[in-house]
Amino acid sequence: MAPLGCRAPQISPRPDLFLPGEPASVDLEDQEIVFDDGSKNQHRIGRIAITNTIGQSGLDTYAAYCNEDGVRKKVPPERFMVAKSDLLIANGAQPARLVEKWVMELLTDRPVIFHDKTSDIKKFYHFDAAKFFEDHCTLIDTQELCFGLDDNKKPSLATCARLILGEEIQGKVHSPVEDSQTAMKLYLRDYPYDRAAMLAKMKSDGTYRKVGAYSMICKQPKNTYKGKADKKTAFNTANPNNGSTKKRVRKLKQAQRDKAAKFDVESESTHSTDDISITTAGASATNGGITNITVESNTVNLTLGAGVSISNMSSYNFAPNSAGGGHSANHNTTSNGSTQTCTSSDKVLAHKKYRTKVD
Questions:
Q1: CA dist 124 to 41, 87, 118, 210, Å?
Q2: According to the UniProt entry, which residue ranges have a biased composition of type Basic and acidic residues (predicted)?
């Protein structure tokens, strides 16, 4: 907000007042600098205003330039509304370098209307405005549009307004806001711009939305994100290496492994005699002993060495070095390198080292 008494009410830029590609009109009143060494005086921005096609001010501020050795500031006559007090930061003037930067940001990629553009462009002090406008804007000079009016090659804005628009401007004082609005009217007379239709089109295709109290322009398509959760999902999809995303993936995989392990009963595994202990009641095994045990579902196959006999086996344990087990079994006695088969009525969870791995 401008300080009390500041004559420029819009001291900070309002880019939200401009549609993409909407023409903008610029007018400024200058301040003069006098060099002590006798060099030619130079003009730079005193007050500048930028308006849109319906006359709203996107910027209206005074520019405060730093003091320089060997340079004196000189203000124009009072009717131009640029007094020494207006150029003080304490009274609402903004740093000139910042003001010039704001101007370039507001005017990028749009038609820009001046009245006597050559004179105004020279008043930018910190940046090469001529190059900027050539590279990033389409310049229109209403003085050129009105060439020859009233037998004048360079008619004044007041003359153009009176003879073409039927309006009287620049009475006792010059306001850059009024002048920029008038220049825009002259431009729109030859190059109409239907702002309402353009706004409706942007709202329909989703390139226009409201944020808070302002109407902001955004390049994001309509309904790309509908809420916080969707934004988070989109962010994680676009950033798979994000730390929190990796953590969720690890937790998900671990949950899958735990679930699979909980319900995974051993189906096809081979164990050595060190992995499964055999508890017998009066059983005997001779010579080569038990060489291998194969577990297939609830059937245990004992592979015996040559010349081995085993008898009276009544129970077995699946857990290595555990005191559990003792499942009842049906068995036969075989020998000489054949297989002893015993069948249990229980389905026993395999030890975790033999369970199927889940990726």
A1: 14, 16, 11, 33
A2: 255-274
Alpha helices in the chain (DSSP H): 96-107, 117-121, 129-136, 142-145, 157-160, 176-190, 195-205, 228-238, 243-263
* pTM of the predicted structure, to 2 decimals: 0.57
SS3 assignment, position 355: coil
Provide the residue type at 137 as one letter: C
Residue type present at position 260: A
Domain boundaries, the chain: 15-191, 228-263, 268-354
How far is the C-alpha of 276 from the C-alpha of 259, rounded, in Å?
Answer: 25
For tokens 């499964």, the residue is 276
Q: Are residues 102 and 63 in contact, defined by beta-carbon separation less than 8 angstroms?
A: no
pLDDT tens for the chain, 359 residues: list them. Answer: 555 566 767 778 898 899 989 999 999 998 988 888 888 888 999 999 999 999 999 999 999 988 888 888 888 888 888 888 888 888 888 999 999 999 999 999 999 999 988 889 999 988 888 899 999 999 999 999 998 888 888 899 999 999 999 988 888 888 899 999 999 999 999 999 999 999 999 888 877 765 433 333 443 334 433 344 444 555 555 555 556 666 777 787 788 777 776 655 444 444 444 444 444 444 444 444 555 555 554 455 665 555 555 554 444 444 443 444 444 444 444 444 444 444 444 444 555 544 444 44
| CATH class of the 15-191 domain in this structure | alpha beta
The answer to whether 112 touches 87, Cβ cutoff 8 Å, is no
Structure tokens at 358: 């889940």
306 neighbors 288 (Cβ within 8 angstroms): yes
Torsion of CA 191, 192, 194, 195, to 10 degrees: 60
Distance (Å, whole) CA 20 – CA 37: 46
